[in-house]
Amino acid sequence: MVTIFNEIFGWTFVFMAGKTIAHILASCMAFLEKDAEVTNIEIRLSNFLITSLCIVNFILVMMNGSTVTTESSKTAFLCYKLQEHFPPKSDERLEILILAKQVRANNVKITAADFFEINRNTLCGILATTTTYVIVVLQFNGIF
């Protein structure tokens, strides 16, 4: 099921990450322009708000991907704990054991078309990449 989900939505996550990075960079570049007119403040503010919405949207997706991975690891633990409540040779206990083995063997990871995992670490990577890019642009523009 997870591989089907990753195949269907993987490229959507890739484009969502690209769109978020592009919005962050465009917003930073708009605020760092030297030739800013006072009339462009509304445009800059709306650009910043749209960028904020893109970031919040992508953060929610990343948090959900991280939660799916965490909860799948808890499922195996709960299966092993639940086995204690059934007789040793019962069919229910055997089914729960099989489920626990399946869950442990198939780690659930939400990915963006198998390029990167969708989890909390992705946000740090995006922020590091965009911060590096903004610093390089600032140095080339002679602001610092």
UniProtKB/TrEMBL annotation:
InterPro entries, per database record: 7TM_chemorcpt
Organism phylogeny: Eukaryota, Metazoa, Ecdysozoa, Arthropoda, Hexapoda
Membrane topology designation: Multi-pass membrane protein
GO biological process, one term: chemosensory behavior
Key words of the record: Cell membrane, Membrane, Receptor, Transducer, Transmembrane, Transmembrane helix
Protein known as: Uncharacterized protein
GO CC terms, sorted: axon; dendrite; neuronal cell body; plasma membrane
Residues that span the membrane, as ranges: 12-32, 44-63
Pfam short name (any one): 7tm_7
Primary localization: membrane
Subcellular location per the Swiss-Prot or TrEMBL entry: Cell membrane
